[in-house]
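Sample 3 of the quickstart, ligand geranylgeranyl diphosphate:
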Amino acid sequence: MKLEEYKKYADGYREQIDAELKKILDELNYSAEFKEVLEYALFPGGKRLRPLLMLEWHNVFSPADNYALRYACGLEILHTYSLIHDDMPCMDNDDIRRGKSTVHKKYGEGMALLAGDALLDLAYRILSMPTPAMEVSPFFMFKDMCGDMGLIEGQYRDLYGKIDNLDDLLVMCRHKTGALIKLSCISGFALGNNLDYKKCKALFETSPQSLSEAESSISSDGLLLNYVLACGFGDSLGEAFQLYDDISEYIEGQKITSTSIMNYVDLDEAKKMLNTLLNDAADALEPLRERTGFLREILNRLIII
Ligand code: GRG
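Result:
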């Protein structure tokens, strides 16, 4: 896929995501000023990576519909809550996010706290919608990845945890950054395959290490293999994404945080680790080669030579 084609494709997704996010806010009865704060946090967006991954993994198996679009927006809303809270003085204390003042800088800390809370609630409400194929949402199975045992555990480890070595650091990254990225991939897989509750549960509870224990119905139609591929891609991309962020900050001469990979390895080693992860993610796409050109291009955007 050429760069121009990639940009056009990604922009097409972003337009759909933005329009749906606007629709979601318009449907709710927030008071005008509070709605303005939520809009400020959500627009203009960043890369919209998580909904984009979710929709693309869906499209690998079947065309994403309006339900999938709304679900993808739930992931972006959840991500936005985490950014608002992460930027607050009691956490990372950042003044600028996406090129403009952070929510607490513009509207005050109380408002930022409430805006984050509201977006977290809203995200859970959207992600808990029953799917067309299931009486419940797959999110109930996946929620630990972006809730208390995923994102929040990762943020705890980052701010207060004991990080003594590279392994501790990578565990923190997998929770803080990787879990939501992986969730985006596997929920796209689950919806794109129109999985019913039983299949979804059987897959999710099957660790990639115990393939042989999976139910035969899942193994026989290739679902298990594809699920393992989506998990492998999500795991590797999630870790690569954080490493890319740390390496880029270092190369740009920005202040290195205490939990940056650059405190543990030198630049060459960090680049090597990043490239290994990107190759692992690309390998996971290999069996689905013809349908994953765009996912491959996302990986190409993270290569640092
Ligand atoms: C507050 C519970 C809680 C968790 C916060 C999001 C997060 C966890 C921390 C952000 C810290 C950070 C800068 C991590 C690096 C990777 C990352 C998540 C970057 C921001 O995501 P992007 O680059 O942002 O996808 P855009 O603006 O493109 O949406």
